[in-house]
Amino acid sequence: MAAAAQPFKGNIKKALAGLRRINLEGLRWRVFDAKGQILGRLASQIATVVQGKDKPTYAPHQEDGDMCIVLNAKDVCVTGRKMTHKFYRWHTGYVGNLKERSLKDQLAKDPTEVIRKAVLRMLPRNRLRDDRDRKLRIFAGNEHPFGDRPLEPYMMPPRNVREIRPRARRALIRAQKKAEQGPSTPTKKDKAAEATA
Amino acid sequence: MNKDKIFKLAKGFRGRAKNCIRIARERVEKALQYSYRDRRNKKRDMRSLWIERINAGTRLHGVNYGNFMHGLMKENIQLNRKVLSELSMHEPYSFKALVDISRNAFPGNKIPKKDGSSIVA
After folding, report:
1. How far is Cα B20 from Cα A71, in angstroms, rounded to an integer?
2. What is the pLDDT of residues B32-80, one digit of tens each?
3. Which of A91, A107, A122, B9 is the most exposed place for a label (fewest CB within 10 A)?
4. What is the number of structural domains in chain B?
5. Same domain, yes or no, for B35 and B49?
6. Å from B9 to nearest chain A CA?
7. CATH of the domain at B88
8. Could you report the per-residue pLDDT of A149-160, keeping only the tens digit for each?
9. Residues B51 and B71 in one domain
């Protein structure tokens, strides 16, 4: 997963920002691949790792979580209609200015913010939250400038997917049938001619 | 007489609470109430911290806290959570032996397979 440093000349400063503030000795560098992962489930795993709750030496007053690198942030998935219906809302402070932006637009604008918000909102709101935020490095693509560190990929725990509901299954079957017959009958007039014939 | 005792207890307080008797008296009363309450809370907090540590330690070996304790109860191992958390921090091999004992007694966990298939026993 080590990549050339050339694509990173733009935001290599942002990627390495604040590294000096973290005491890096003894911490592992865990790499999460967000491609095809569900947003919330991935974020909760990242939150446990960043807090250090997977180590038996956890202490709530000191910050000992591992550095987390998240790759392929733009390929993160959500179920249901959240892509168009999930809104990020914020109020600017002026009367009547409640702004909102949908997941789709946010992914187009800045895909790292989606995962960063998800993880930050899962961390406890205390004084260690900012330090934990500094340990999270999220990248939209597959490359990162940390190739020379000892990296460890993180295996996500296996997921039980519930079986598909009847209505969704019927829609899936219809879509599959349409995909099979699609290239052969493109126009409506031909279908009408077939139906009458 | 009483004032000296109050000021002695008010060492380290913020602002006028360490110097002026009226404020110091209130703050010291509150501090003594908090310390009464927290002597009882400390026992709860320490136990939950031990449980968190044991949970982290057993999950490294693929067993979660509930199944681990159930297995230990079945084997009648009466180590308390304090000792178990110390073992999980400082004696990893002994702790792994305990996790194996518990897993033999109560195999209630799915084995985490790397290829993604999960079977809940």
Report:
1. 58
2. 999 999 999 999 999 999 999 999 999 999 898 999 999 999 999 888 9
3. A91
4. 2
5. no
6. 26
7. 1.10.1900.20
8. 788 888 888 777
9. yes
